[in-house]
Amino acid sequence: MSRQREITQKRVLGIAVPIVLSNATVPLLGLVDTGVVGQLGDPVPIGAVGIGAIILSAIYWLFGFLRMGTTGLTSQALGAEDQGEADALLTRALMIGFGGGLALVLLQWAIIPAAFWISPASPEVEALARDYMAIRIWSAPATIALFGITGWLIAAERTRAVLLLQVWMNGLNIFLDLLFVLGLGWGVSGVAFATFLAEWSGLGLGLWLCRDAFARPFWNDRARVLDSARLMRMAAVNSDILLRSLALESVFVSFMFFGARAGDLPLAANQILLQFLHVAAYALDGFAFAAETLVGHAMGARNPRRLRRAALLSSAWSGAIAVLFALGLAVFGPGLIDLMTTSDIVRETTREFLPWMILAPLLGLAAWMLDGIFIGATRTADMRNMTAISAIVYFLAVWALMPAFGNHGLWAALMISFIARAVTLGLKYPALERAAA
Predict the structure, then answer these.
(1) Per residue in 171-228, pLDDT tens?
(2) pLDDT of amino acid 3
(3) Which residues of 84-112 are buried (b: 16+ CB within 10 A; e: fewer)?
(4) How far apart are CA 139 and CA 101, in angstroms?
(5) Global model pTM greater than 0.85
(6) Distances (CA, A) of 264 to 36, 61, 250, 257, 258
(7) Using only C-alpha atoms, what is the Rg of the chain?
(8) CA 143 to mean position of chain CA atoms
């Protein structure tokens, strides 16, 4: 498929819609994992699966740079019609994925105890969670390698393949959950084995979906794959994204801690409203991914006109979804809050802060889309720096606003951080078009 063809509404939607549908399968798996152990009639397995999954997800999240970096670099290679470099990038991503996953397997003796030292649980929950993690950690190479495969497929505009991959993995995981836990009575270990098998089978399917790359000679061209200049560029891009993500995570982790200082009721309200924010992020991710891909193609082709069109079209669709989401929360938010909790006082408190959540997708939209645009352009140093600045702005806003306004001040600080990230990245945008030219 030519990367030089015109960027149209249909092309943007062709990339974005499968990603939105793919993301919709993610929370379903968590619900089933919790539901099947909930049938055991004991709260300990529920807590063990929950804390074990959260710890592993946090560890794997550190490798999220592999998905974003692979998309940006591969889309630029395809835009420049350099299929050899695109295929070599797939091999490099797999090398990083397998290497990082193997390191986690070898270091599990230190990682798992350290995780529970940081986040202790009751002895019963911790014992079962250790069993869960000791099984699942063996699929770390598959899980992290899949980040690279997903990024490569997105760059190639093959997001329907990404959808197939997610549906397969999550569907198999759910089936095996039911078989191992409810059918065979394996308990928490059954949930872990189900995920272990689903992740390794997902890697097999992912490699099969990339079979066209392995049919060409470039993927195992050692001189190209191990070229020092290209390896250094990939390392620079990935390290910038990692540092940017750590800065971003500091904002959201501290948001929960600061909310706890405001009291138990604001903390509970924030937890409910953040679930809505996650849904909004999932819905808008597809258009950010479209921006990554199409901006990368335009940058590789050295075509600033296409870069601008890719940024505008993907952002316009994302803006429309954000407005619909905000309107939906304004109308249905109180009812959704009632479904999330049966406590009248928590419902009342959450409704008090609901207007901030209605504003969140509207004020966060520009920052989220600019992230995708800058990833596609691989201007990751700018992303790193501007995210660090917005994090500093957030902490200063918390310091200034929370003493006077409590939890409202905390939400205001989060909105200010969104705006700060959008403004600082927006000021850097003209440099992208100049670089493309």
Answers:
(1) 999 999 999 988 998 988 999 999 999 999 999 999 999 999 999 999 988 999 999 9
(2) 55
(3) ebbbbbbbbbbebbbebbeebeeeeeebb
(4) 8
(5) yes
(6) 29, 28, 21, 11, 11
(7) 22
(8) 13
396 Cβ contact partners less than 8 Å away, ≥ 6 residues apart: none
Secondary structure in 3-state letters for the chain: CCCCCCCCHHHHHHHHHHHHHHHHHHHHHHHHHHHHHHCCCCHHHHHHHHHHHHHHHHHHHCCCHHHHHHHHHHHHHHHCCCHHHHHHHHHHHHHHHHHHHHHHHHCHHHHHHHHHHHCCCCHHHHHHHHHHHHHHHHHHHHHHHHHHHHHHHHHCCCHHHHHHHHHHHHHHHHHHHHHHHHHCCCHHHHHHHHHHHHHHHHHHHHHHHCHHHHHCCCCCCHHHHCCHHHHHHHHHHHHHHHHHHHHHHHHHHHHHHHHHHHCHHHHHHHHHHHHHHHHHHHHHHHHHHHHHHHHHHHHHCCCHHHHHHHHHHHHHHHHHHHHHHHHHHHHHHHHHHHHHCCCHHHHHHHHHHHHHHHHHHHHHHHHHHHHHHHHHCCCHHHHHHHHHHHHHHHHHHHHHHHHHHCHHHHHHHHHHHHHHHHHHHHHHHHHHHHHHC
Place of tokens 């019609």: 81
Rounded CA-CA distance 352/349 in Å is: 5
Dump pLDDT digits (tens) for 313-363: 999 999 999 999 999 999 999 998 887 777 788 889 889 999 999 999 999
Neighbours of 144 (CB within 10 A): 29
- Residue 415 banded pLDDT, cuts 50, 70, 90: very high
Cα-based angle 89, 215, 70 (whole degrees, multiple of 5): 15
